[in-house]
Amino acid sequence: MNNQPLVQVKNLSKYFQINKKEILKAVEDVSFDIYEGETVGLVGESGCGKSTTGRCLVKLYEPTKGEVLYQGKNVFDDNFSKNKLQYCKNIQMIFQNPYSSLNPRMTVKDIVGEGIRIHENVTENELDERIEDLLKSVGLNKEHMSRFSHEFSGGQRQRIGIARALSVNPKFIVCDEPISALDVSIQAQVLNMLKRLQKERNLTYLFIAHDLSVVKYLSDKVIVMYLGMIVEQAESVELYRNPLHPYTQALLSAIPEADPNIAKTKERIRLKGEIPSPINPKECCRFVERCMYVKKICHEEMPDLKTIDSKHKVACHLY
Ligand code: SF4
């Protein structure tokens, strides 16, 4: 693994102005590094800002504050614009919904080949060969090239989406909940395929999910977000062995246990209430309304993301 992070996110915030008075703070002051070849899992409930963070990384959203550095260069800097095409080639995204992320009017060949046509000078024969190889690597075949996306199952559509992301030989892929819209029986196949492709192509992933058990299988590091902010960040083994933040503890307790003996003794932490609105949030701990360990200071001050040791950071006044 290289010593210089491939991607650095520094104090990233993304706000959406709802009306004159209301601001939706989707992401606030988020910082993390992603090294070449690793998988970073980004986890949290719907609306916690994980997809917005991913979209800022692929430049679908411009951050309100903060920076995204790719190989040490700020991708939102004006000087970076001449590298824009190269950046688009190096960074790709696999979308959550394989039903809406593929153009129904385009054939598989056009969908998968579009990026290659834009970035490279290839003949029609070369293009066909490349697409055939890509389809093979995601478990499809050349007969599928002339078909339209509505002719495929959800799992197959997601494979087409993955082939599209791979078509321009990216270094880094933002996987935005790539299995959450799929049947459970298909999820493991797609996860195994992503793992294999990472090894074969030396890919780096930001893997976004709401389920900590999925992230455990793939990730080297895990970042837990709650209401737009990072609440805990640790190496994967460390986070599952020793979760510190009350929210992470609750998420981990919700993972079903396969062993009936362990399941009997496992205590489920049930959080009270729903995730609050990210519109005009209070300047205190964002988890304050649902936390079972709440103290006076939690209502008064926002906890910093403290470094507990080299592998673990947590934002909570208990530490
Ligand atoms: Fe709970 Fe307070 Fe920690 Fe927030 S800072 S998670 S309210 S103990």
Unreliable residue stretches:
none
Helix/strand order: EEEHEEHEHHHEHEHEEHHHHEE
Mean pLDDT: 91
Radius of gyration: 21 Å
Name of the CATH superfamily: P-loop containing nucleotide triphosphate hydrolases
The number of strands is 12
Q: What small molecules does the structure contain?
A: iron/sulfur cluster
Output the number of helix runs: 11
Helix amount: 25-40%
What general outline do the C-alpha atoms trace? globular
Overview of this protein structure:
- By secondary structure, the chain is an alpha/beta fold.
- It has a single domain (7-242), classed as Rossmann fold (3-Layer(aba) Sandwich).
- It is 33% helix and 22% strand.
- α3 packs across α4 and α3 packs parallel to α5 (154-166).
- The two termini are 31 Å apart.
- The model has no long low-confidence stretch (mean pLDDT 91).
- The structure holds iron/sulfur cluster.
- Iron/sulfur cluster (SF4) is lined by residues 246, 285, 287-288, 291, 293-295, 298, 303, 316-318.
Summarize the structure.
With 319 residues, this protein is α/β, with parallel strands linked by helices.
Give the SSE map.
Elements lengths: L6 E11 L5 E12 L4 E5 L6 H8 L7 E6 L2 E2 L9 H7 E4 L13 H12 L4 H14 L16 H13 L5 E5 L7 H18 L2 E6 L2 H7 L2 E6 L2 E7 H6 L4 H8 L6 H6 L30 H5 L5 E4 L2 E3 L5
Parallel strand pairs: 3-8, 3-9, 6-7, 7-8
Antiparallel strand pairs: 1-2, 1-4, 4-5, 9-10, 10-12, 11-12
Helix pairs in contact: 3-4, 3-5, 4-5
This protein binds iron/sulfur cluster.
The site of iron/sulfur cluster (SF4) has 13 residues, from loops.
